[in-house]
Amino acid sequence: MPRRKPGSLLPLETEILAAALSAERPGETTFHGFGLAQVMREQSGSSALTSHGTLYKALGRLEEFGLLTSTWEDAAEAEGRPRRRLYELTPKGAQVATQAQADRATRFAPRIAPESA
């Protein structure tokens, strides 16, 4: 596991925040871990996600940092399946996710090679 510099996020954590931000829909701001893992796989192949245990530990850390909040789903909504823990980006989390996406876009912007004559 990479060492964390004070005040920084691990690549997996920034990937989680970016996926959570992109998965938000009007009127639907919460997400659950398994659904987030699916979004991450669809978006980037999720090279950083090695197991669901890794994902849930990272979600817990992001909650400790104040970037996410979570609650348990109501039992009535579960409809015969285990209840899900629902996560939501905080305003600070959305800001960090937006900034991380902007940083990634400028850092990894493709270069346009000059045409050969």
Describe the structure.
- Helix 1 (11-23) packs across helix 2 and helix 1 crosses helix 5.
- The N and C termini lie far apart (47 Å).
- The chain has helices spanning 11-23, 33-44, 52-64, 75-78, 91-107, and strands at residues 30-32, 68-72, 85-89.
- A three-stranded antiparallel sheet has the order 1-3-2.
- The longest helix is centred in the C-terminal third of the chain and has 17 residues, at 91-107.
- The protein has 117 residues and is mainly alpha-helical.
Secondary-structure topology with pairs:
Elements: H1 11-23, E1 30-32, H2 33-44, H3 52-64, E2 68-72, H4 75-78, E3 85-89, H5 91-107
Helix pairs in contact: 1-2, 1-5
- Number of alpha- plus pi-helical segments: 5
- Share in helix: 40-55%
Q: Helix-strand pattern, N to C?
A: HEHHEHEH
Mean pLDDT: 80
How many strand units?
3
Summing up helix and strand content along with how strands pair, one would put the structural category as: mainly alpha
Give the termini separation.
47 Å
Strand order across the biggest sheet? Answer: 1-3-2
- How would you sum up the major sheet? 3 strands, antiparallel
Q: What percent of residues are in strands? A: 5-15%
Low-confidence stretches: 109-113
The shape, in one word, is globular
Radius of gyration: 16 Å
